[in-house]
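It is worth pausing here to work through a concrete case rather than discussing structure prediction in the abstract. The textbook approach is simple: state the sequence, then state the predicted structure, then interpret. We follow exactly that order.
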Amino acid sequence: MVNLADYLPNYYDEVVEMQQLMAAEQVIFDGQGDLVNRLLLNRFVMTADSNGLSLFEYELKIEVTAGESLEERRSNVLLRIMPPQAITIGYLRALVKSLQIPTTITVDSGKSSVKTFSSATVITPEQVVRLRYLLSVYLPANLAYVISEQAKTENALPLSIGFAAHTVVSDQIGAAAVIYEEV
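Step two, the predicted structure:
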C-alpha cells in the first residue's frame, strides 16, 4: 500500500497542516486505489469480475443467458478472442484441457472424423455446448465430429438370450406325401 506522506519533500516533515492534509487524502487515495486496481484487473479476461466480463461480452456480441456462472462467461469470452493457430490434434487436445472440458479426443483419418468421448457423470451440459462450439469453429469443413457420452445404467428387467429354429421338410413319394417337421 502506498503512503502519500512518504512522497512529501523533507521540509514538510515539521508542518502539522501538511501532515493532517496527507492523512485526510490518504483515506480517499486508498479508496480510489482499490477502484484503480479493479479497473486494471478488468482489462484481462482471467482476472475480470462480472462488470469487466460484461464489457468483453458487449464488444464481442456474446449473448449471456441467465444463470451462467462467472467461469462459463469467462470461457465463452476466451473462446472468441483466442489467436489463430495451426490446428493440430495436439493443439486441440491442449485447448480442450485448458478449457477444463473432460473428454478424450481421437481422430479417424480414414473416415475423416473426430470423436470425443466423455463420462456423462463428469461432463456438464455447458461443457458440451462449449465443446460443440470449439469443434465447429476450429475443425476444417471436411472433418465430421461426434460427441459421445457414456453413462452407467442399471436395468431390472431380465435379459434372455437364445436361439430358435423351425424347419419343415416335405417329400413326395408316389401318391402319398410325407411331411417331416422339426421344432
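Step three, interpretation. The domain at 85-151 is CATH 3.30.70 (Alpha-Beta Plaits). Strands lie at 104-108, 113-119, 144-150, 167-173, 176-182.
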